[in-house]
Design goal:
Helix 1 runs antiparallel to helix 3 and helix 5 packs across helix 6. This protein has one domain. The two termini are about 15 Å apart. Helix content is about 80%, strand content about 0%. By secondary structure, the protein is mainly alpha-helical. It has six helices and no strands.
Length: about 160
Amino acid sequence: MKDNLSERLRFLKRVVEREVHHLSYSSRNVFTIPFTEERAAKLGEDEALAERVEAYTSRFCRLQDTAGDKLLPLWLRALGEKTGAVADNLDRAEKLGVLDSADKWLEIRQIRNQMIHEYIESPQVLADALTTAYDYQETLIAFAQAMLADVERRGLLD
């Protein structure tokens, strides 16, 4: 069982590292200047910008899904912790010191949902969601990296 757990952790480590790299790349391409409502309103006519925004949104969401839905429960199991609902897992991660705030994570999740569901109808909602996601990006990355650093520190990849 431990070998399978270690193998899965190694796999997720590679995935998370790649996702962080791609998110950072997309971030640099979208946020060269502030993302305003005016920029969001032009997505219909600026296909290059629309593609960059789509890549950023997709990569942000993917990293959040990987970190919160895959890596977090696996990390908790590797530590011998009981896993449960997402909110419970996040609370445990906060108590174990790899997440600053479970509540902030849930806020990031709401932003994620706005980016993928509401932007078509409201440029302002998209602009606000993207700007907020950008502000939270380092929190997202730090959470994933903190779990991976803990895995390595504990020798759970062996």
